[in-house]
Specification:
The chain is mainly alpha-helical. About 65% of the residues lie in helices and about 5% in strands. Helix 1 packs across helix 3.
Length: about 130
């Protein structure tokens, strides 16, 4: 299959397929006699795996390790769990940061009169020259 067909079947765009190949997340594609990339059904399966991993927010580095572990049937699940645990901790930290931002912005919104007066606590908070 060519890259367009694989892109359609895996729902991963061609640019990302080439990127995943260049950084070693997916194996290098075979080449036709005319030099075009050729992919197999197995490659589609790997791309779907990677797509799901990206949807869960795993980094490219983590995905490279996860694909390698997934392909290694004698892998210790401890390695997989370690990667996922580290990622979950990073997500928790981001969630805490987002919740703090949301609390602040909601407090500012509550304290803004939202009328014709020029004073605004939202702009005051954003003003770095205070």
């Amino acid at each position: 299959m060519n890259i367009g067909q694989v892109s359609k079947l895996s729902k991963v765009n061609a640019k990302m397929i080439r990127r995943y190949e260049s950084v070693g997340i997916i194996p290098k594609a075979g080449r036709s006699p005319s030099g075009y990339r050729q992919y197999s059904q197995h490659d589609i399966h790997i791309l779907k795996f990677v797509k799901k991993g990206r949807q869960l927010g795993f980094s490219m580095i983590d995905l490279k390790q996860l694909v390698s572990l997934w392909r290694n049937k004698s892998r210790p699940s401890l390695q997989v769990k370690s990667i996922a645990t580290k990622h979950a901790a990073e997500l928790e930290k981001k969630l805490d940061e987002i919740q703090a931002m949301l609390f602040t912005i909601n407090t500012l919104i509550k304290n803004c009169h939202g009328d014709n007066r020029p004073d605004c606590p939202i702009l005051d908070e954003l003003n770095c020259h205070k």
